Amino acid sequence: MAGLRMTRKISTGDIFDRVQGTVMDMMFPPRCPVCDEIVGPMEKYIHHECRRQLLPIEQPVCMRCGKSVPSEQQEYCEDCGKAMEHHRLYREKDSIKQGKAVFAYRDSIKQTMYRFKYSNRREYSAFFAQMAVDKYAAWIRSCGIDVIIPVPMYRGKKKARGYNQAECFAKELSKRTGIPMAKGLVRRVKNTQPLKTLGYAERKNSLNGAFQVMDSIVQYYHILIVDDIYTTGSTIESIGREIAKHCDSQVYSLCVCIGQGS
Ligand SMILES: [Zn+2]
Ligand SMILES: [Zn+2]
To answer: Any idea which fold 54-258 has?
Structure first.
């Protein structure tokens, strides 16, 4: 198992990264994920008062996807309930073991995520990854995660936008945990339309053949798929299904934000 290395020996590469980071911070000072104004050197990542506006995910949560649920008595959210019902009906194995998320996708973070995705605010990923590690380091360790895979973006889309925000988050997560990130193992080979308004079976069909998994995935046993926003879970589930065609590795998910469960 690739354990979490919270304290590491400092290599020349690390020093180079730090110097480069400092120079970049001087030239392009990092912006606060909430208000998008510059964050001074005394405040790391985010203004103190802005931090209060974010809504971290609190218990009780869905045991499958990590969404907040209304009561302790409710084990799964409605979306997971539907997915599990579908699996039972068609005698399919669930492709996702468990998922977690850092913030509730509500209020001001919606604008934050929009800028992260479309306005080149890649620097937010350092804050997101730090929050994810603060909250879930023990969980990541207990799952024995040996690789981090970002949800891939369709090639043409990535080219047009210049970056994949899930990959930025994965990279920062990898830096903080010492767990390698592998971005070429899963590819998006079909450009899909937004899936929110579709039912479970339609979403599943629409994502059929959207992802391609490389054979070398077999070297990993506990895979963490990461993304910016988790809504119904069909994207990650679809990746899990492709992975299951190659090996019996356990697939977990960790996302920056997650919708509200019901
Ligand atoms: Zn702020
Ligand atoms: Zn759920």
So the answer is: Rossmann fold (3.40.50)
